[in-house]
Amino acid sequence: MPPDSDHNDARREPYPGDRAAAASDATAVARNSAPDSAPDSAPDAPGPAAAGFDSALGTFLRNHRERLTPADVGLPPGRRRRTPGLRREEVAQLSGLSATWVTWLEQGRPVAMSARALDGLAQALRLSRAERAYLFALAGKAEPRAATDPSVPAPLLASVEAIAGPAYLLDRQWTALAWNAAAAELFVGWLDAGSEDRNLLRAMFLSPRLQALVEDWPHRAARLVAEFRVHSLPHAGDAPTRALIEGLQDASPAFREAWASQDVEERQGGRRGFHDRARGIVYFDQLTFIPPAAPGTMLVMLLPAREPGD
């Protein structure tokens, strides 16, 4: 599909990453202006939201603080300690936060934390990868380190080849990281040897060969955009994601219309039809998995569609 030369910037749908980044920076400014000493009065009773969500976060932070010693983080032992682990003031020093904020977080107060502040806490508490992910999940924030880590375990890449039917692994921007021979044979205009762009969204909207392959292309393409809107939201501030969205809005009127619709869909399985050159129309049942070892990626498998009653 040729690029549209009559568009202008006013027609481009803004990406949520612009607002998310501004909100994160504003939270960081507020964090840095917090008082440096613990509050003198007792904390307010947590509200309904804090009773479950924030108390779990506070318990998690307190438990991990108490597991560490000054030697674990390169600090001198200091004066005699009456409680186990690090002091809150030491966690504040290591994380770049004020002691007041560390205290409030552990007490379960509904304190708004930026991803940058959470990252500082994770580093101060020497959290593992799984513990970091849990911390950010408790706080309802996307993990910045996960968003920029491109590493994918070699066994995961190799597993794609071992799948009998068409299978492929997508990164955060839905560019194929790996695919098997069956997928290359099926997806002409995207994964075949003659295609140069391995991004699924760009191929779906800019490759006439892939458009001809997909049954009911207008519906499938619009749904793909709705699914990507949900999947990409945690990584809205990533430069590659923003460049992908902006480039497609410039190049494809169909994508621009689908993106502006604000439709959202979960990435679900189901029947998929393709106009195969050799076999005619063929149907598959699609299964999508999120590999825990590579956050943000998706493993997609196409199994031969079962007939009703099979």
UniProtKB/TrEMBL annotation:
SUPFAM superfamilies named in the record: lambda repressor-like DNA-binding domains
Ranges for region Disordered: 1-54
Biased composition regions of type Basic and acidic residues, renumbered to the chain: 1-16
Transmembrane segments annotated in the record for this chain: none
InterPro entries: Cro/C1-type_HTH, Lambda_DNA-bd_dom_sf, MLTR_LBD
Family annotation (Pfam families): HTH_31 (PF13560), MLTR_LBD (PF17765)
Biased composition (Low complexity): 18-54
Residues in HTH cro/C1-type domain copies: 60-132
Molecular function, one GO term: DNA binding
PANTHER family, alphabetized: BLL4672 PROTEIN, BLL4672 PROTEIN-RELATED
Name of the featured protein: Xre family transcriptional regulator
Organism: Cupriavidus plantarum
